[in-house]
Amino acid sequence: MPDPEVRNQREAVDSGGVVHLEAGHLSRTQIVLFAIAAGSPAVGISLVPMLMFSYSGMQSWPSQLLGMAATVCIGLTVSFFARRYVATGSIYSYMGNAFQGRWARIVVAAALLLGFVLQVAIIVGVVGVFLGSFLTEIGVDAATGAAFQAVIYLVALGAAALIAIRGLDASVRTVVIAAAVSLPLPLLITVLSGAHTGLELPHQFDLDELSVNGTFQGFAAGVTFLVGFESLAALAAETRDPKRNVPLAVMSLPVVLGIAYLLATIVQLPGLAAASAQIEAGLSPPAALALHAGLPPAVGTAADLLLAVSMFAGLVGFVNFGSRFVATLAADKLLPSRLAVVHRRYRSPALAMIVLTAVGFVVVESAVVVAGDVTSGYTALATALVYSWLPAYLLLSIGAIVRTLRDRRVQWRVIVAAALAALVIVWLYINDVLNPPPGPSAVMRWVTYGTMAGLLVIFGLVEYRRRRAAHRTA
């Protein structure tokens, strides 16, 4: 009887010698843990409360609650499609089952291609922020400079690509271990900060001081840590019982991480208010909270290193998710077909991973150079990420309603969830017009729209030529 690994490798090669992804590889436990760990929970717990506080002040919990509710609604629409179709293109693949023609798929292709590049750039940028802070604390003064940061980006991206290329087993192990190692200290800092300052719940829940504009701006900023949570659906073809396990993994992120971020926000807000001077002076939020709670400075330094480890876990995750999306576009001829080639030994879209990380490096380094510093470059890219991903979410929500009505089997849970998600997204656009973001964020939205328009033109021309060629050969 042949070795199971050899048998699996044989089954992965079709009669034409083409290697495919390894079907049915990930178990339910693996994909759920991979999903949650790739969300970098340690970093979310450490940074989301500060983002909420910077926009909404002490009344920040509604922003986080709104973000969790919106992503749960989007998760339900993703699950609606994931229970029906097994695909490697996530939202992009679902569009063909929701709308007639290919126009929706092309719009989503443009939005998510930019989105995945930005995700990789942002995540490695945050790795650089935390690792640079750690190195500065131990005496490496050049660690936050553009040249040193470029080295960090190259090393982190190269390591993430190498791990991802070696297959899902290597990726899952790395991501879960990194998340497990990095999580306890931020949790400890959060608990001790809350115990030191108290929760000030009457102040936090004083609705008279609540600002609608601040709530939505805080939501738009904080949701950056949940944007792209459904990307793991790109692993459906490599998951056992995908129509059951992928929806469970998709919903685990907005529920588990959404609740964790909401609780962390409520617990940390009084400490963030008390430590605002230290944060403005340049300390990271966890380092400032640790000092204010009476912990030694070394705790903040260690937290920075662990948060860099947590973000690296997210980087490995999104290199896996994004590369499969890129390979799907290549298989559909929207991108060069070589990007769809799967590594013969490791069964991963290796070339797509290399290209995605290379483009991500160019984007993050360009952002740092143009913005003038690492933090401003990250902020600009984070703003662009939200604007790039929202069109895909909007079409997904509308598509779920269209699909369920076309089936003539009204599923009210899906319709209500999709309608609420669409309303929130539309209101974000309206609020953006009525209350435009300040400074660089306002510029970045137009850069994002312009880039997406350029990709739409390119994909539209590719699709036009494909149709003409098909018509000539018919």
TrEMBL record:
InterPro entries given in the database record: AA/rel_permease1, APC_superfamily
* Chief location of this protein within or outside the cell: membrane
Localization, UniProt: Cell membrane
Question: A single Pfam family, by name?
Answer: AA_permease_2
Residues that span the membrane, as ranges:
31-53, 65-86, 106-134, 146-168, 175-196, 216-236, 248-267, 305-329, 350-372, 378-402, 414-430, 442-462
Membrane-topology annotation of the record? Multi-pass membrane protein
Coiled-coil region list: none
Keywords, alphabetical: Cell membrane, Membrane, Transmembrane, Transmembrane helix
Concerning PANTHER family, the annotation shows: AMINO ACID TRANSPORTER-RELATED (PTHR42770), MEMBRANE PROTEIN (PTHR42770:SF7)
* Protein name listed in UniProt: APC family permease
